[in-house]
């Protein structure tokens, strides 16, 4: 008797070895894909969208690459997911986490082939991950107490992060930008307060940090172009026609003259509103919604600068910067907090006119203006800067710092190796495999830089056998160097997140022994 | 297809479009059904126990779920076969009733079907098999009652409960920090439990997850979290001793349900209407302020103007809070949900010691914590984890643990796990079989064999020699007359489940046996399957 089919027609089922192989192959393929972007000499990828316009993105940011890939393999999706989470949570290390997870799986595959049960591998990996984390914890440097040193730590971290990106040419410049911007946040992790404006033209070197706030808007016609000691009212209110909000209200008239009367009343209403706004004693009015011609004219008459249609983020940021509140009613001028700034003026960047608020009350927010040759360069620069900012803001909260350049991996690998020797049973194979997977990271960094990885990693291992060694791969000179002297640092938080998420993802994929795919939902063909 | 003919040789048409249907009858039908049931059980078999494997399930929209929870696997499996659907139902009803053991029940049913197939081949009538199974299940359930132990715990002594939850969690992905999760689950259940009435309302426990962080960051919050932030970015982020007005009416001008029109035909009317509108907003905010509220939680949206007025009157507000959350907040803070502004009174306000907004990670994710509530019965388990799938799986695991803790509070009898209860039942059933005259005896023996399949699967999944291990444990149980020997899945070195602290609830186990028997009986009684043939 044939075994009954129990699943629906198009649904498929993969079992045991097949399922495991499918997930290994998928995950390893993904990790191979982003592998070449790792490290300071990593290469970029061109991504072309299938949508209209065939937009092109050039990037070496792991999360961006993976986000844009259409993937069908479920295991690959797990890896993409961890890289996304890494991006959201700490902002950097998106490539490393995928590569490490891939290496862990590659090692696991060999163990499975050697007839070691996946559960044994998992428990070995867990022990190894815990041990690796402790090894890192022992070697962290915390310069929390020393502001001067901490700042130089931040600078080093920013440079290390940026060195693998397009900005590496001017990494000092950008590292300075990023550190300055993050220091202004004073410990908050709200990166919203840092605004990045991209303007094509000029070169990357021309990018600058502006202490004030730049709004990408134009000043209304006939209104002052420059205001000193501005009092700003930030508002979110309709400045077109203020419609009656009572439900079901509608206007019905029986003659033209009545229409005119109502229109007059409407105008009067708007005029009143404008008068109320002016009564706040302001000389600058920023609204989230549109300002129509009529009120704009009124504002111009009163000599007030009116800026319309600042988007919601812009408004919030502006309120944050100037210390005003976002107002929607205007009946009590005395109790509304107004924003202040020393100078509002129109400035030119490239060919565009922007409004610049300087000398603001609260120094939290700032604007970074990026300049560059093309949109692609700017987009990539923004992503790189975003990574650096994320890492820095996380480091401000968790001030523990490690050395970079493959140093943490070597330290972990050494400790894990020692653990493997002490552990009895089959687990020790898995622990050993973990240490091999960790070693793969410096190997890949060296390979990507076109160096002799086997030789370098062997040298590193030997170096690390000494106590308190700071050796890592110096990609520039192509040899083993002292990371502390070279000033290559990484944030502990990022490394820890990489280690834990990668282990978790590898564990998840290892535990699977069956894949059941449902029939894809039928879609209407719209072609 | 068998056709009946009348005296002139014309076929009777009994079933509509008879020629297009395929039909299976008699032993064929039973065998087909059994093989379908077995196929489902085979899928779940490898997920059983602490070393059970996970399955990847890809939904029709290509979303990926990774789980080893039996109920979830079957739910998402896109099953087409009728009998397979019965098995899905079986695991679901175990999930609803007990919440745990969803895999075990299916494996048990599969084993029973397998045994039934052999008996059918030997020519035993399916009904006799069904009856034999019924008798055997009664014996097993009674035996379970005999070997069950009650154990004492109280609000101060939660250790036994924690141990039981740890057994449940050890088969899930969270077993790295099962201690933490078990403690969280037990504390959560105890804080909502009514120990007098022995009842637990699990609705009061909200399980929330947010991607990021690690599993160890999961926490139990004595209060509610809401995935919302303050309606105005400049409202205070922390409120102490909050008095909360819980509203289900929007901060907008009223919309009468009857259809109406407000006609504006003169300038005066236009102006009065405008003033009235402004008054509405003022009134609403003023009413909230007058009753002494320091926080407004509203199910609906706010008008921009109302929002600013609230901000202006220093009255923080949260908007677009879902109905379920609103109810939970009302329960937790002891407030009343107020549908109209006119009905706001100081007594209807909820109270909370601390309301704060917390942000996560580098993105602008914010959540609202409402803590130290007047009625601390509602709690939230807030899960953090590496990725979406881990969190979903953790949620399911926590659900299982919560159910186990609840069952123990309802009925504090336990049996020992690790297959020991099944082995012990199997011995008892085997022994009882000889007392029954008639063909049922065979079915009862088959039942005993089927009971062995659970510990066998456990041993298999743990990488042990299944037959060898099982027979060793069985002989040990008989020799020492001790029903607590089970399979040593975690390689601890002892077979005594009391030392390993592996428990399961008595009702959970009994339910598993009863449900599995019922479904198998149902399947055995089917002797005719009519299905439309393939197009």
From TrEMBL, chain A:
Main location: cytoplasm
Cellular compartment(s): Cytoplasm
GO molecular function list: ATP binding; ATP hydrolysis activity; ATP-dependent protein folding chaperone; unfolded protein binding
Record key words, sorted: ATP-binding, Chaperone, Cytoplasm, Nucleotide-binding
A cellular component annotation (GO) from this entry: chaperonin-containing T-complex
PANTHER family linked to this entry: CHAPERONIN
Described function: Molecular chaperone; assists the folding of proteins upon ATP hydrolysis. Known to play a role, in vitro, in the folding of actin and tubulin.
The protein, known as: CCT-beta
Gene: LOC111315263
Automatic annotation (TrEMBL), chain B:
Molecular function per GO: ATP binding; ATP hydrolysis activity; ATP-dependent protein folding chaperone; unfolded protein binding
Catalytic activity: ATP + H2O = ADP + phosphate + H(+)
Compartments in which it is found: Cytoplasm, Cytoskeleton, Microtubule organizing center, Centrosome
Key words, A-Z: Acetylation, ATP-binding, Chaperone, Cytoplasm, Cytoskeleton, Hydrolase, Isopeptide bond, Nucleotide-binding, Phosphoprotein, Ubl conjugation
PROSITE patterns listed in its UniProt record: TCP1_1 (PS00750), TCP1_2 (PS00751), TCP1_3 (PS00995)
Domain of life: Eukaryota
Membrane-spanning intervals of the chain: none
One GO CC term on file: chaperonin-containing T-complex
Main location (coarse class): cytoplasm
Pfam families: Cpn60_TCP1
Annotated CDD domains: TCP1_epsilon
The keyword Lipid metabolism is annotated on this UniProt entry: no
PANTHER family per record: CHAPERONIN
Record's protein name: T-complex protein 1 subunit epsilon
């Amino acid at each position: 008797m044939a075994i009954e089919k129990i699943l629906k027609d198009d649904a498929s089922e993969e079992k045991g070895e097949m399922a495991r192989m499918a997930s290994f192959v998928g995950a390893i393929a993904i990790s191979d894909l982003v592998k070449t972007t790792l490290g300071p000499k990593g290469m970029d990828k061109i991504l072309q969208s299938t949508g209209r316009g065939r937009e092109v993105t050039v990037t070496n940011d792991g999360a961006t690459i993976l986000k844009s890939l259409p993937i069908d393999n479920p295991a690959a999706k797990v890896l993409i997911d961890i890289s996304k989470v890494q991006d959201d949570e700490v902002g950097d290390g998106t490539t490393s986490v995928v590569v490490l997870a891939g290496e862990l799986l590659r090692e696991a595959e060999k163990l499975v082939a050697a007839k070691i049960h996946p559960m044994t591998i998992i428990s070995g990996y867990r022990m190894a991950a815990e041990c690796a984390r402790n090894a890192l914890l022992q070697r962290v440097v915390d310069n929390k107490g020393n502001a001067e040193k901490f700042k130089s730590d931040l600078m080093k971290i920013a440079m290390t992060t940026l060195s693998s990106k397009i900005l590496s040419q001017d990494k000092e410049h950008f590292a300075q930008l990023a550190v300055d911007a993050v220091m202004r946040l004073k410990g908050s992790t709200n990166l919203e307060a840092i605004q990045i404006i991209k303007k094509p033209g000029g070169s990357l070197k021309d990018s600058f940090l502006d202490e004030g706030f730049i709004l990408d808007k134009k000043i209304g016609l006939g209104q002052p172009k420059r205001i000193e000691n501005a009092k700003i009212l930030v508002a979110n209110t309709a400045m077109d026609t203020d419609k009656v909000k009572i439900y079901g209200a509608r206007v019905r008239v029986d003659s033209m003259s009545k229409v005119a009367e109502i229109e007059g009343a409407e105008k009067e209403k708007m005029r009143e509103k404008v008068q109320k706004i002016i009564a706040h004693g302001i000389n600058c009015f920023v609204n989230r919604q549109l300002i129509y011609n009529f009120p704009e004219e009124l504002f111009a008459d009163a000599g007030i600068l009116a800026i319309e249609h600042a988007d919601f983020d812009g408004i919030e940021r502006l309120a944050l910067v100037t210390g005003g509140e976002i107002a929607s009613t205007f009946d009590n001028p005395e109790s509304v907090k107004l924003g202040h700034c020393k100078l509002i003026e129109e400035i030119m960047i490239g060919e565009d006119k922007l409004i610049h608020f300087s000398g603001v009350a609260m120094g939290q927010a700032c604007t970074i203006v990026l300049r560059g040759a093309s949109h692609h360069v700017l987009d990539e620069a923004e992503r790189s800067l975003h990574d650096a900012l994320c890492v820095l803001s996380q480091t401000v909260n968790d001030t523990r710092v490690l050395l970079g350049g493959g140093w943490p991996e070597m330290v972990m690998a050494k400790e894990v190796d020692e653990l493997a020797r002490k552990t009895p049973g089959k687990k020790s194979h898995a622990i050993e495999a973990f240490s091999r997977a960790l070693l793969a990271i410096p190997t890949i960094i060296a390979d990507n830089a076109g160096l002799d990885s086997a030789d370098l990693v062997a040298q590193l291992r030997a170096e690390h056998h000494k106590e308190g060694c700071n050796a890592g791969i110096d990609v520039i000179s192509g040899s083993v160097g002292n990371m502390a002297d070279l000033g290559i640092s990484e944030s502990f938080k990022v490394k820890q997140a990489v280690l834990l998420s990668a282990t978790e993802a590898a564990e998840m994929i290892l535990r699977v022994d069956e894949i059941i795919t449902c029939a894809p939902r039928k879609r209407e063909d719209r072609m | 297809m068998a056709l009946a003919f009348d005296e002139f040789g014309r076929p009777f048409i009994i079933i509509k479009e008879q020629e297009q249907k395929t039909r299976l009858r008699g032993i064929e039908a039973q065998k087909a059904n059994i093989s379908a049931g077995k196929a489902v059980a085979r899928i779940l078999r490898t997920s059983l126990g602490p070393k059970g494997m996970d399955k990847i399930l890809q939904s029709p929209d290509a979303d990926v779920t990774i789980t080893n929870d039996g109920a979830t696997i079957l739910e998402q499996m896109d099953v087409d076969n009728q009998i397979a659907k019965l098995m899905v139902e079986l695991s679901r009803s175990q999930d609803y009733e007990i919440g745990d053991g969803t895999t075990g029940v299916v494996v048990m049913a599969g084993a029973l079907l397998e045994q039934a197939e052999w008996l059918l081949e030997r020519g035993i009538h399916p009904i006799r098999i069904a009856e034999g199974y019924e008798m055997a299940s009664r014996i097993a359930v009674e035996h379970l009652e005999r070997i069950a132990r009650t154990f004492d715990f109280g609000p101060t002594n939660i250790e036994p409960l924690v141990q039981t939850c740890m057994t449940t969690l050890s088969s899930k992905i969270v077993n790295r920090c099962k201690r933490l999760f078990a403690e969280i689950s037990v504390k959560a259940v105890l804080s909502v439990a009514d120990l007098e009435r022995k009842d637990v309302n699990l609705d009061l426990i909200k399980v929330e997850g947010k991607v990021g962080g690690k599993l160890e960051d999961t926490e139990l919050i004595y209060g509610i979290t809401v995935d919302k932030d303050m309606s105005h970015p400049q409202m205070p982020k922390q409120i102490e001793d909050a008095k909360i007005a819980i509203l289900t009416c929007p901060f907008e001008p009223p919309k009468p349900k009857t259809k109406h029109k407000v006609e504006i035909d003169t300038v005066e009317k236009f102006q009065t209407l405008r003033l009235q509108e402004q008054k509405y907003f003022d009134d609403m905010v003023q009413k909230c302020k007058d009753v002494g509220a320091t926080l407004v939680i509203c199910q609906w949206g706010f008008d921009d103007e109302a929002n600013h007025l609230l901000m202006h009157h220093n009255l923080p507000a949260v908007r677009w809070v879902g109905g379920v959350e609103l109810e939970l907040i009302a329960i937790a803070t002891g407030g009343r949900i107020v549908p109209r502004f006119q009905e706001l009174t100081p007594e209807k306000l909820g109270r909370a010691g601390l309301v704060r907004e917390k942000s996560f990670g580098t993105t602008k994710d914010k959540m609202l914590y409402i803590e130290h509530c007047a009625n601390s019965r509602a709690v939230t388990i807030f899960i953090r984890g590496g990725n979406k799938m881990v969190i979903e799986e953790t949620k399911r695991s926590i659900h299982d643990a919560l159910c186990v803790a609840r069952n123990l509070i309802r009925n504090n009898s336990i049996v020992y796990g690790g297959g020991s209860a099944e082995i012990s039942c199997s011995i008892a059933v085997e022994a009882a079989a000889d007392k029954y005259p008639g063909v049922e005896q065979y079915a009862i023996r088959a039942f005993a064999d089927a009971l062995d399949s659970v510990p066998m699967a456990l041993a298999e999944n743990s990488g042990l020699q299944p037959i060898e291990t099982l027979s060793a444990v069985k002989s040990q149980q008989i020799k020492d007359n001790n029903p607590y020997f089970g399979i040593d899945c975690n390689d601890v070195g002892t077979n005594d489940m009391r030392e390993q602290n592996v428990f399961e609830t008595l009702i959970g186990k009994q339910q598993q046996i009863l449900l599995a028997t019922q479904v198998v009986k149902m399947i055995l009684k089917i002797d005719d399957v009519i299905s439309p043939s393939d197009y």
